[in-house]
Amino acid sequence: MNSAINSIYTKLLTCPDGMAESFTKTVSYEKLYLEEFQNLAEVAVGLEDWLERIYNEGRLHSSLGYLAPIEFEHNWLAQKRLECGLVI
Questions:
Q1: Distance CA 15, CA 42 (A)
Q2: Do 72 and 62 touch, CB atoms closer than 8 A?
Q3: Domain Integrase catalytic spans what residues (predicted)?
Q4: For the chain, what is the domain count?
Q5: How far apart are CA 63 and CA 43, in angstroms?
């Protein structure tokens, strides 16, 4: 593991929250361990792209009823609009 990854990984692992630990594992195995980064700037760009394209839009989450977060949010907003009588 190169130093840029090690630095990010160490910071993420210091969070005691179970959800953060699960997220850290997911990021590590699905992104960080699969690529070579030369510096923290490359890590930041790569993570931003992965979070938007894969984690938030494409990856299904069991805690969200096996929906992608973006799909879950759209469904939730549609339901709230219906509850408030704001059908568009």
A1: 23
A2: no
A3: 18-69
A4: 1
A5: 27
Contact 19, 51 (CB under 8 A): no
Instruction: Give, for all 88 residues of the chain, the pLDDT tens digit.
Output: 556 656 665 665 565 677 677 777 888 888 888 888 899 899 889 888 888 887 777 888 888 889 888 889 899 988 888 888 876 5
* Residue 44: CA count within 13 A, CB half-sphere: 3
Question: Residue 66 domain-assigned?
Answer: yes
Q: Does residue 22 sit within a domain?
A: yes
Global pTM reads 0.52
16 lies in a domain?
Answer: yes
Q: Which structural domain, as residue segments, surrounds residue 41?
A: 3-83
Q: Per the domain annotation, does 88 fall within a domain?
A: no
Burial 56-81 (b: 16+ CB within 10 A, else e): beeeeeeeeeebbbebbeeeeeeeee
